[in-house]
Amino acid sequence: MNLNENQIRNLHNIKEMAYFFKINPKWAVAVAMTESSLGLNQKSPTGCKGVFQMSSIAMKDLHQEMVKNDDDLIDIACGVAFLYLLAKRHGTIDAATAKYCDPKDVGFYVDRVKKYMEEIVMDTDMAELI
After folding, report:
1. 5-121 carries CATH number 1.10.530.10
2. What is the CA radius of gyration of the chain?
3. pTM surpassing 0.70?
4. pLDDT tens digit sequence for 87-130
C-alpha cells in the first residue's frame, strides 16, 4: 500500500489515539481505510467528512470546527473514541464494526474492515508504522 504523507500522519495519529483508548490500532486504521482511505477521500456524497466520516447530529459542532480548521486530528480523536465506545458496548470488533456503518451495508462493511486488518498485517511497510 503506497501511502502519502498525509495518510501516514493520519495513521500515526490513529495509532496514538487507539493506544490511548486501549483499542486495537489495526481495527481503528482498518475502519479509517474503509471510510476514507486514511484521509485520501474525505468527502462523501452524503455529506460526511473527515478520516472517520463521522456524521451524527451530535457531532455537528465538532464537524464545523473540524472543517473550519481543516483538522484531521479532531476527527481522528472522535472516530477512535467512538470505536472505543462501540467496542465496550458490543464486546467484539465484528459487532462494534457492524454498528459503525449504515445497517444496510453491514456485511460488506465488516468484510472490508477485516480485509484491511489482514492487509495491514501482511504489508510490511504499513505493519512497521503500527
Report:
1. yes
2. 14
3. no
4. 999 999 999 999 988 889 999 999 999 999 888 877 766 667 66
